[in-house]
Amino acid sequence: MSYPSAVKIVEVGPRDGLQNEAVSLDIATKVELIERLASCGLKNIEAGSFVSPKWVPQMAGSDEVFNQLGASESVYTALTPNMRGLERAIECNVKEVAVFAAASEAFSEKNINCSIDESLAKFEAVIQKASTANIRVRGYISCVAGCPYQGDVDNHRIKDIASALLSMGCYEVSLGDTIGVATPEITERLLTELLKTIAPLKLAMHMHDTYGRAIDNIKQSLAMGIGTIDSSVAGLGGCPYAEGASGNVATEKVIRLLDELNIAHGVDLQKLSQASQFICEKLGRPAFAD
Ligand code: HMG
Ligand code: MG
């Protein structure tokens, strides 16, 4: 078994973490969190969502967050479900956006109010316009290991959706285990299917840690050549349209795994712990402990 020598971490706490918190934070606190995370060496940070504020009120201030963020070496990404979202991103001078599809029809309808095929048609237009505006686009597929509404999902269908997103112009596709039901065996079967036609460096893993299996699943993915891992400071997170989706795997845990496996990551764990304490205090949560 051979692991990659270096891994890219995509920090999703300010978006996936905060979108599901009952406490709504002010803009200054969100900006401070993102800038603290950038100063830890995290080069890719999801900073907000340009979705409907009626659907996800916690992300309503994302325009202001992006406008207030200072210049940084880190790339700040925003979720954009449609053209309206992309237009907001362009107004805020965002350099990278993410579109998000699902592996199950039921989840697609609940999360973005359209079928998978309808979502792909919308994304194609969003990706085309983003590319003319020089904005990079990341793709997501949710519920890759199971759906809270319809149960099983089909790995062939997931491969087709990932291929479609890549051929439309996404530079990578992140595979979301939205409700944390994956096991290393499920992860292995999923990746075995996708890697038949997709290069490992085009894929990322986005594991929620509902049943405490995210680290084992990530280890499995790394062994199969995946080099990008999404995670969330202090394990914040969930999805408002997936009941039971607890936090994303904690960035602190991922860093510890990478250190154990001797994989380079470029993140200062001590500074990260301080950023973690900062946000836990603001949310009135106990400090994160492994
Ligand atoms: P819809 O109701 O079908 O949209 O929602 P619509 O086009 O009919 O518009 C309805 C209203 O929303 C209109 O306003 C639009 O202007 C407004 P009204 O006339 O009623 O006042 N609207 C917008 N406002 C601001 N920004 C926009 C926007 N678009 C429409 N971009 C829509 C469709 C996609 C908008 C909605 O379903 C939505 O916002 N969904 C987002 C849900 C979401 O953010 N979920 C969480 C993120 S995904 C996730 O967490 C999973 C992930 O982490 C991976 C994993 O874990 O698996 C990525
Ligand atoms: Mg998520």
Secondary-structure blueprint:
Layout lengths: L7 E4 L1 H5 L9 H13 L4 E6 L12 H7 L6 E5 L3 H9 L4 E7 L2 H8 L3 H17 L3 E7 L12 H14 L3 E6 L6 H11 L8 E5 L6 H10 L4 E4 L19 H10 L8 H15 L7
Parallel strand pairs: 1-2, 1-8, 2-3, 3-4, 4-5, 5-6, 6-7, 7-8
Helix pairs in contact: 2-3, 2-11, 6-7, 7-8, 8-9
Bound molecules: 3-hydroxy-3-methylglutaryl-coenzyme A and magnesium ion (MG).
Summarize the model shown.
The protein is an alpha/beta fold and 290 residues long. It is 41% helix and 15% strand.
Please characterize this protein's 3D structure.
- The chain is α/β, with parallel strands linked by helices and 290 residues long.
- The chain is globular.
- The model has no long low-confidence stretch (mean pLDDT 95).
- It has helices at 13-17, 27-39, 62-68, 83-91, 105-112, 116-132, 155-168, 184-194, 214-223, 251-260, 269-283; strands at 8-11, 44-49, 75-79, 96-102, 136-142, 172-177, 203-207, 228-231.
- It has one domain (8-283): Aldolase class I (TIM Barrel).
- The structure holds 3-hydroxy-3-methylglutaryl-coenzyme A and magnesium ion.
Amino-to-carboxy terminus distance = 26 Å
Strand content: 15-25%
CATH topology: TIM Barrel
Bound molecules: 3-hydroxy-3-methylglutaryl-coenzyme A, magnesium ion
Helices and strands, in order, run as EHHEHEHEHHEHEHEHEHH
Q: How many separate domains? A: 1
The unreliable regions are none
How is the largest sheet built, in terms of strand order?
1-2-3-4-5-6-7-8
Give the number of helices: 11
Mean pLDDT: 95
Rounded radius of gyration (Å): 17 Å
Largest pleated sheet:
8 strands, parallel, barrel
CATH class designation: Alpha Beta
The secondary structure category is: alpha/beta
